[in-house]
Design a protein that fits this description.
Strand content: under 5%
Helix content: over 70%
Number of strands: 0
Shape: globular
Order of helices and strands: HHHHHHH
Structural class: mainly alpha
Radius of gyration: 19 Å
Oligomer: single chain
Number of helices: 7
Length: 185
């Protein structure tokens, strides 16, 4: 279980490897307003949606041999849960945390990467956490770029994306499956 957590948070971070939410993470790192509320909403929405979608898929779609419908079912469940949580947040905190793409992609990723309901629940939390654990790193890189910038020729965004690409390469450099002798046969 611990190896699964470390694997999905560090090595195959949903942001760095799958690319889910890179743009949003960059935006949040530049202006981290209400980040805690957005994080809680993301975790709750992804967790509830992935667990309920997993249960519906296992109990209804697999016995009926219509497993191709699980993304549609997940969209329906996600919409109901996201609207409910968004309404609660708007009433209590008076801010908008509406977003669809990142949360739903984490739900689909959690459903695809899980074989049990416990694994689905843990993976959905891990994927959401990996997104919010990357934001302080991006904030630090962005601050460092702003401090060391001497010219106005290059924008901060491009340097930040280049830094993200370098981090992605560093994470994957030890994967030497291409050195396997069976690859060239």
């Amino acid at each position: 279980m611990l190896s699964n957590i470390l694997y999905y948070i560090i090595y195959t971070s949903s942001v760095l490897i799958y690319g889910i939410g890179i743009n949003r993470a960059v935006v949040y790192s530049e202006k981290p307003d209400h980040l805690m509320i957005k994080g809680i909403k993301l975790v709750l929405t992804v967790e509830a949606t992935s667990v309920l979608s997993f249960l519906v898929t296992r109990s209804l779609l697999i016995p009926a041999n219509v497993t191709e419908m699980y993304p549609f079912v997940a969209v329906l469940i996600y919409t109901a849960i996201a609207v409910f949580i968004e309404a609660i947040i708007r009433i209590t905190a008076r801010i908008s945390t509406a977003e669809f793409g990142i949360s739903f992609m984490y739900v689909i990723l959690a459903l695809n990467e899980s074989t049990t309901i416990a694994e689905c629940a843990i993976n959905s939390v891990i994927f959401s956490a990996s997104f919010f654990l990357l934001i302080p790193l991006l904030y630090a890189i962005n601050r460092r770029i702003q401090i060391s910038r001497h010219t106005k020729d290059v924008e901060n965004q491009s340097l930040l994306f280049i830094s993200i690409a370098i981090i992605m390469i560093i994470l994957l450099v030890w994967n030497v499956t291409w050195l396997n002798p069976g690859v060239f046969k």
